[in-house]
Amino acid sequence: MGISERKEREREEMKTMITTAAMKMFLEDGYAKTSIRNIADAIEYSPGTIYLYYKDKDELLFEVQGQAYLKLLEAFKQNVTSTDPLEKLEQLGKTYVSFGLANPELYDLMFIIRAPTNVDETTHGHNGDATFNYLISLIEECILADLLIFKNANQAALQIWSMAHGLVSLNLRCRLKVMIPEEASIPEILHKAIEEYLISIRA
Amino acid sequence: MGISERKEREREEMKTMITTAAMKMFLEDGYAKTSIRNIADAIEYSPGTIYLYYKDKDELLFEVQGQAYLKLLEAFKQNVTSTDPLEKLEQLGKTYVSFGLANPELYDLMFIIRAPTNVDETTHGHNGDATFNYLISLIEECILADLLIFKNANQAALQIWSMAHGLVSLNLRCRLKVMIPEEASIPEILHKAIEEYLISIRA
DNA sequence: GGATTTACTGAACACTGTTCAGTACATTTG
DNA sequence: CAAATGTACTGAACAGTGTTCAGTAAATCC
């Protein structure tokens, strides 16, 4: 009988309906300002219903995080077009920075926000792996070709990601104002910082 | 007449009483989990009283932030002891990282948390300036002695701070787990990352 | 067609930041 | 000294939050 299959399908539809609304509202107003009641209103259901599909607001956050990581991965794939590994790394870095500047609320939700309750690691701990592995593979390619000063990919990733995340997150928290001229173009300055950094770690 | 002076003094005492309790509770439980009612309870006053001294929870946050920045500055002054500028920069970097690892809730409050309402810039925008200037002066010293690849201090600070903040904040959000071995000592790895980075930006 | 399962509701609970009428005490004035 | 004024503080109330759960109505099963 196809009833249970249909029900399962309907359940999935309901879940995507919730996450779609949540993603939209998180993007527009941020995670903190989006309440379960608001989301319920948007999809025209009662607040209690959401808890039949997601255990709490955090679980909703992690669902949306997963989607956001994939969005970033898509951006990587679209913008990393060169054949030269080092150039690819530069394209990736600039894509990362641009992504953070263009989607501040999304970036917040992906890397800055602290989920009130710590989520179960075994189930949700790896929803950014595909995106992270894209970075790691590219770094490995660079190291294999002896283009970087690093010998270990994880060690290199630690530094490269930290630099990129530092630039984006300090900017999102308005901490760069003291270091850059009033009229300067922030994307330009951050891109230049990425460029310079990558030059300094060339083998 | 000394009455108004005494009142002013009492007002200041009350303010420090509030901020001291707030700082303690922010440190222990974090900003989000500390409520005005909790603080009021701790100092044995009613919640309304706090609003006679601080306009809202944000203003309290900025007050505590200021104190935290000074605490970091103290740590800098205590640990930056070398005579060699580059060595001093390394000591500063390691102090920064250690500070963040040792006081995660404080670091959060200083650099990661987004205050719900954006505070008035003219009054509170510069409460971290002394600490930041310490970094800038040191970088200028390095640049003047031609020890760094940078020609501009702000440009250098942008990168150096971003790297340090990236390392600390990604660690606080458990994003480094994928890059470092299970049993590794995080302080050691982050210190090594700082060391390596500083080597790569040497002139 | 009657029993059971399922999906959903919306009121209720315990919290949050913030406001404000009311009070009790300190100070000033007549 | 007594009355009037000023000040510091209270705690209930407001509007919001995440979350739970008894109750209901519809779909499914037997």
Automatic annotation (TrEMBL), chains A, B:
UniProt superkingdom: Bacteria
Residue span, HTH tetR-type domain: 12-72
InterPro entries linked to this entry: Homeodomain-like_sf (IPR009057), HTH-type_Tx_Regulator (IPR050624), HTH_TetR (IPR001647), MT1864/Rv1816-like_C (IPR025996), Tet_transcr_reg_TetR-rel_C_sf (IPR036271)
Keyword Nucleotide-binding: no
Signal sequence region: none
Residue stretches spanning the membrane: none
Keywords, sorted A to Z: DNA-binding, Transcription, Transcription regulation
MF terms in GO: DNA binding
Protein name as it appears in the record: TetR family transcriptional regulator
Organism of derivation: Pedobacter cryoconitis
